[in-house]
Amino acid sequence: MSLLKVEALVKRYGGLMATDHFSITIAPGEIHAIIGPNGAGKSTLIGQLSGELQPDEGRILFNGRDITRLTVDQRARLGLARSYQITSVLPEFTALENVKLAVNALRGSRFGCWQPMAAARAIAAPAQALLDQVGLGERAQVAVADMAHGEHRQLELAMALAGRPTLLLLDEPMAGMSQSESAQMTAQLRALKGDHAMLLVEHDMDAVFALADRITVLVYGRAIACGTPAEIRADAAVRAAYLGDDETADETALAAPGEQA
Q1: Cβ contacts of 250 within 8 Å, gap of 6 or more
Q2: Does residue 49 sit within a domain?
Q3: Are 34 and 200 in contact (CB under 8 A)?
Q4: What are the CA-CA distances from residue 51 to residues 58, 142, 185, 237 (Å)?
Q5: 65 and 170 inside one domain
Q6: What is the pTM of this model?
Q7: Distance of alpha carbon 175 from its chain centroid, rounded?
Q8: Are 30 and 188 in contact (CB under 8 A)?
Q9: What pLDDT, in 10s, does the model give residues 89-129?
Q10: If you placed Cys at 50, which of 24, 82, 116, 143 could pair as Cys (CB 3.0 to 4.6 Å)?
């Protein structure tokens, strides 16, 4: 059975069809990438999957359950977590405090009382373990405001993992990263493969082709192709979507990792 099954999803904004009868399946442990030109509707799609946006038509099934009308919190408690295109961490707190908040919230607790929560070993231990998992273990007591952008992205990944999700919705996790930071994040996501299924929205083609089991190409809200990285790289319709009038740009965008000039 598919972990995630999306059936003919539609999202309209007036006369604009932002999501056009989109369907997809994701198997347990699979990394499935969504790529497409700017304005293709990728963020609108992931917003519907996370529960931040409600579709106008279609269904979203998670572990066989219809979650189309469930809230973000309800989906998170079922094992579906999202990271954001723009980091959503609290800069005035330390890395450990940020992850404590995520662990506490996703366990159903209220965190209006910070002091008791901060001292709870039941919260601190798993929070530290999550920082260790994403390579930030030694940065636990550093204020987020003093951390690099790439570390912010690692921290957000740790927070997304706090609810022990079976499916991660990753919205451009490499956005704004340097080449070395992107390579590090790619390695961390690869290490999570198998334990967590992932739907990856990403512009970094090196990362996409290094990580994805399958890739779906979105253009004007509609899926124009779905297949393995090799199949997508060779697909004429995909090349046309990235091509425009510049064949060199197309070859660069769809090059295999390490092939880019």
Answers
A1: 239, 242, 243, 244
A2: yes
A3: yes
A4: 14, 32, 25, 31
A5: yes
A6: 0.86
A7: 11
A8: no
A9: 899 999 999 999 888 877 655 444 454 554 567 789 999 99
A10: 82
> What percentage of the chain's residues is helix, strand, coil (to nearest 5)?
40, 25, 35
Residues 177 and 64 in one domain: yes
* Residue owning tokens 């994805």: 212
Residues 139 and 177 in one domain: no
Fill in the DSSP letter of residue 139: G
- CB environment 178-204: b (16+ within 10 A), e (fewer): eeebbbbbbebbeebeeebbbbbbbeb
pLDDT digits (tens, 9 = 90+) for 139-188: 999 999 999 989 999 999 999 999 899 999 999 999 888 999 999 999 99
Query: How many helices (H) and strands (E) would you count in the chain?
Result: 11, 10
In a domain, 221, yes or no: yes
Give the pair of three-digit tokens for residue 42: 């990728």
Q: Render the burial of 85-120: b for 16+ CB within 10 Å, e for the rest.
A: eebebeeebbbbbbbbbbbbbbeebeeeeeeebbee
The band of 244, judged by pLDDT with boundaries at 50, 70 and 90, is low
Q: Where are the alpha helices (DSSP H) in the chain?
A: 42-50, 72-78, 95-106, 114-119, 121-133, 149-160, 179-192, 205-211, 229-234, 236-243, 247-253
Residue 192 resides in a domain? yes
Three state DSSP letters for 224-246: EEEECHHHHHHCHHHHHHHHCCC
Same domain for 188 and 155, yes or no, is: no
Question: Measured between alpha carbons, how far is 200 from 206 in angstroms, rounded to an integer?
Answer: 13
Residue where a domain stops, chosen among 164, 186, 218: 164
Phi, psi (5° rounding) for residue 184? -65, -45
pLDDT digits (tens, 9 = 90+) for 46-84: 999 999 999 999 999 999 999 999 999 899 999 999 886
Number of domains observed in the structure of the chain: 2
Length of the chain: 261
